[in-house]
């Protein structure tokens, strides 16, 4: 078992995405090999600011599927007011935003994988994802990564 960390990123909420990227970048900076697997609402962390969906239901879902800069906090979002408030408070305290943390993770060599099944269900295409996503894979590929990891987390 190597000095590796595997993260399942299931949540698409600002605070949880921040926690996932802070842990991932901290581990990578400490010399660990890190793999992040983005599934369902977690895909928002690696989605470009584009509309998604091909079918009528897919396009409706696409209205709610944000990008890393558009996601709100898990509590006190109040239709976007909470997101604005948190961003103001984070800037005041020099806290790095989710898109900046994602860029830092890519610089540190964090491996980012997107869940194929979630993308099919939510009608998200490969070209809708940022370039730092290395592969679109199924759960079996992620489980192979996780099996070689010392630490596996679900966020």
Word description of this protein:
Helices cover 41% and strands 19% of the residues. The protein has helices spanning 14-29, 56-64, 81-92, 98-107, 116-122, 139-147, and strands at 2-9, 33-38, 111-115, 133-137, 149-154. The chain contains 6 helices and 5 strands. The chain has 155 residues and is α/β, with parallel strands linked by helices. The chain has a 5-stranded parallel sheet with strand order 4-3-2-1-5, with helices on both faces.
In short:
Helix content is 41%, strand content 19%. It has helices at 14-29, 56-64, 81-92, 98-107, 116-122, 139-147; strands at residues 2-9, 33-38, 111-115, 133-137, 149-154.
Radius of gyration: 15 Å
Q: Shape, please?
A: globular
pLDDT < 50 runs, ≥5 residues: none
What is the CA–CA distance across the termini? 22 Å
Strand order of the largest sheet: 4-3-2-1-5
**Structure classification:** alpha/beta
Q: How many helical stretches? A: 6
Order of helices and strands: EHEHHHEHEHE
Average pLDDT for all residues: 95
Number of strands: 5
Largest sheet: 5 strands, parallel
Strand content: 15-25%
SSE blueprint and pairings:
Layout: E1 2-9, H1 14-29, E2 33-38, H2 56-64, H3 81-92, H4 98-107, E3 111-115, H5 116-122, E4 133-137, H6 139-147, E5 149-154
Parallel strand pairs: 1-2, 1-5, 2-3, 3-4
Task: From the structure above, extract its key features.
155 residues, alpha/beta, 5-stranded parallel β-sheet
